[in-house]
Specification:
With 358 residues, the protein is of the alpha/beta class. It is built from 16 helices and eight strands. The protein starts with a helix and ends with a helix.
Length: 358
């Protein structure tokens, strides 16, 4: 049995963290679904920038859209929705089989509005309406300003992927926004079945402390943060507050492990997949890491309910001079800035392509 299948059977969903037109047209995504147990897909500005700028697969559509008077974010939105619609169709049988719990694709609001609550909500509503894809999650950053938009979007019935979370505290803030949205729906007599996932970014922790970490702690911080957050996730799902909502028919906001590609060439290329196997969670996995795990991965078992050695590892990092709260705030800020830079590069790539094509 392939390790990807074993991970699926353990109860963790594998979502591909990539989309290109070539993946769709060559049948590669379909093969990953059939052979590597992939059950969903995520995207971000960097992924789309690479897909559009390094390929001519989008040229014809860019020409047509520009000829119809579209440009910038609106033109890109059309391209992204075309790709995600095709991907969503491939995942539709999974979405149907799991009663709407799995089989999702994701598209985010513009990172330029990450610190503007009202504009984030307006964009989320627009993306949800324009795409009109039943198994689409709209990505909203879990910044301080994003959290009220997440609550309002959930209350409005928009499925949300909360992104740019870097710590247990970030996760809990996002989970509370989700729960408030669901509680308000119940109070208003609406259905509590609004799907959401909370995306916790991991590998950037180890990159950030690479120069500071003692040899025995190298490449251990990201997994420890993931395991610590998993314990909080399990605690929340067993809380009285959640049980009351579940009794009304609500679905849990699943914890999603993101940024799970290994950056250190000296470390295992499946570090964050092997170390974060857990039921009722998601790992959104870069294509290179997916292929590596399918080739030589192993599933030794699930994360311990209590997070295992997470607290001991985090204590050791604190003694080594790492302040997890301060670093989480910095990583979220840098992550938002990185997505803004990628978004601007993406808009530039679309504009440049359009000018080249005439």
């Amino acid at each position: 049995m392939k390790a990807t299948r074993a991970l699926h059977d353990l109860g963790q969903s594998l979502w591909l963290d990539n989309i290109t037109r070539e993946l769709l047209e060559a049948g590669t995504l379909k093969r990953y679904i059939d052979e590597l147990s992939v059950t969903g897909l995520t995207s971000n500005p960097t992924i789309f920038n690479n897909a559009i700028s390094r390929s001519n697969a989008y040229d014809e559509d860019i020409q047509k859209l520009r000829a119809s008077g579209l440009s910038g974010e609106i033109l890109f939105g059309r391209l992204a929705i075309q790709d995600l619609t095709r991907a969503a169709e491939l995942f539709e049988p999974i979405h149907r089989r799991t009663a709407g719990f799995d089989g999702f694709v994701s598209l985010e609001v513009s990172p330029l509005v990450a610190y503007d609550t009202e504009k984030t909500l307006v964009q989320a509503q627009r993306v949800h309406k324009k795409a009109s894809i039943p198994n689409l999650l709209v990505k909203i950053p879990g910044t301080k300003e994003g959290l009220p938009a997440i609550e309002e979007a959930i209350f409005a019935g928009i499925p949300i992927n909360v992104t740019l979370l870097f710590s247990r505290e970030h996760y809990l803030a996002a989970a509370n926004a989700y729960l408030r949205g669901i509680e308000r729906r119940i109070e208003a007599g609406r259905s509590p079945e609004v799907i959401s996932v909370a995306s916790l970014f991991l590998s950037r922790w180890d990159v950030a402390v690479a120069e500071k970490a003692p040899a025995e702690l190298r490449n251990r911080l990201g997994v420890a943060i993931g395991r610590q957050t998993y314990q909080a996730y399990r605690d929340l799902l067993e809380s009285d507050r959640w049980q009351r909502l579940a009794n009304e028919g609500a679905r849990p906001q699943r914890l999603l492990f993101a940024s799970t590609g290994t950056n250190d060439p000296k470390a295992s290329d499946i570090l964050y997949v092997r170390g974060l196997a857990a039921p009722n969670t998601i790992n959104t996995i870069p294509e290179k890491t997916l292929l590596a795990f399918g080739d030589h991965g192993e599933v030794a078992g699930a994360i311990p309910r209590d997070g295992g050695d997470a607290q001991q590892v985090l204590t050791a990092f604190t003694r080594a001079g790492v302040d997890p709260d301060e670093l989480a705030a910095r990583l979220q800020k840098e992550g938002a800035e990185s997505f803004v830079a990628s978004w601007r590069d993406l808009m530039g790539a679309v504009e440049s392509k359009g000018k080249q094509l005439g």
